[in-house]
Design brief:
About 60% of the residues lie in helices and about 15% in strands. The protein is an alpha/beta fold. Helix 3 packs antiparallel against helix 5, helix 6 runs antiparallel to helix 7 and helix 8 crosses helix 13.
Length: about 375
């Protein structure tokens, strides 16, 4: 994620903190001060939040390590003000595996709460104490607050609001009987319905629920669309989606050449090759980068100065899904397609990929082609 920094690497998984989490800590500190608490009490309030998010990190490692058991790598874990996010390379499509991965997070919170309760129980009854003494020891205790919060986190995450943990369990259970795309669509609809309930409760109660509602509603829709797209790409090669009629630019050509092609036709992005006959592709000149470069008014500037070189290339016979994933990860709206000799034979754009996904989805609808 942008605006996040790596603070540790645990079990080979980078842990990152988003800048907005620091703003949350400052807000909590200021809130305590405004409420009349002293600096010490305000720092204790911040300390509780840090401890809670420490438990959130452990929650996310529960997901990550369970996923690793099934060969799924975790790119990183990021701490945000509304919780943690473990970015798995993929979600296991076998229902039982997804259930295990989804439940591993809340299980960690239940385990933390159980250990804290055991600590209080042993402390209270070690000297022959009574249940009343145990209850009294929990009042206003830092660890007791942490115990209650972990119970809340575990139970709240089990709410079947996809893409929260409970929603993923719901999707996996539905996928036992239904195809994966339909199961995801149903789980996403349920999640978005619950998100609307969260939003109403947030308006009349805790404003934090509004942020959670927004996250759930948007996350459910986005993941449902991604699953639909992955299904449409199943077994489809890059050659099926690539643009075959396009202009190629040399890296030493001036930006004015790209402007002429841009105005003369429908092509917005251009593969860029090196110098000489049969020169390999060196990157893409994207429309967004071209517009930024033109803001300086220098159309004689060579294309090599603004070409995007981090997109890589694709082969016509590569499967479309992993190539599409690479494009998303690298922030590339287009990518050159090259043959075995390295010659540019096509261009893959997100627009064409989207069109193919729409066509594939339409063809798979009941009654299509009748």
């Amino acid at each position: 994620m942008n605006w996040s920094w790596r603070v540790a690497t645990i079990a080979g998984i980078p842990v990152r903190i988003h800048v907005t989490f620091g703003l949350l800590l400052l807000f909590i500190f200021g809130l305590h001060l405004a409420g009349g608490s002293g600096v010490v009490r305000s720092l204790e309030g911040v300390g509780l939040i840090v401890a809670v998010f420490g438990c959130v990190v452990l929650h996310e490692f529960g997901h990550a390590l369970a996923a690793r058991r099934y060969g799924v790598r975790t790119r990183d874990i990021t701490i945000l003000p509304i919780g943690g996010l473990a970015r798995l390379e993929r979600i296991p499509t076998k229902p039982f595996q997804e259930i295990v991965v989804a439940l591993a997070g809340p299980a960690v919170n239940f385990l933390i709460a159980s250990l804290l309760f055991a600590h209080f129980s042993l402390t209270a009854f070690a000297d022959g104490g009574q249940p009343a003494q145990l209850a009294a020891s929990l009042q206003g205790n830092f660890l007791a607050e942490l115990l209650v919060i972990n119970l809340f986190l575990a139970i709240f995450n089990l709410v079947p609001a996809f893409p929260m943990d409970g929603g993923r369990v719901l999707r996996a259970v539905l996928a036992i009987r239904l195809d994966y795309v339909r199961a995801t669509r149903i789980a996403a609809s349920v999640g978005q319905g619950i998100a609307l309930v969260f939003a109403v409760l947030g308006i009349f109660g805790n404003p934090m629920l509004l942020f959670i509602a927004l996250f759930v509603f948007m996350g459910a829709g986005q993941e449902a669309a991604q699953v639909q797209m992955r299904s449409a790409f199943d077994g489809v090669p890059v050659a099926r989606a690539m643009v075959r009629e396009f202009h190629v630019l040399r890296e030493d050509a001036p930006l004015a050449v790209a402007v002429e092609f841009l105005l003369a036709g429908h092509q917005h992005d251009f593969p860029v090759v090196g110098l000489g006959p049969g020169a390999p592709a060196v990157g893409m000149l994207l429309r967004s980068d071209l517009m930024k470069a033109l803001a300086g008014g220098d159309t004689a500037r060579p294309i090599r100065d603004v070409v995007k070189t981090g997109c890589g290339v694709a082969h016509p016979m590569e499967l479309l899904e992993p190539v599409f994933q690479r494009m998303q990860e690298r922030g590339c709206s287009a990518m050159p397609v090259v043959d075995d000799a390295g010659a540019v034979v096509g261009m893959l754009t997100l627009e064409n990929v989207g069109e193919l996904a729409a066509i594939q989805a339409a063809l798979r609808r009941p009654g299509a082609g009748a």
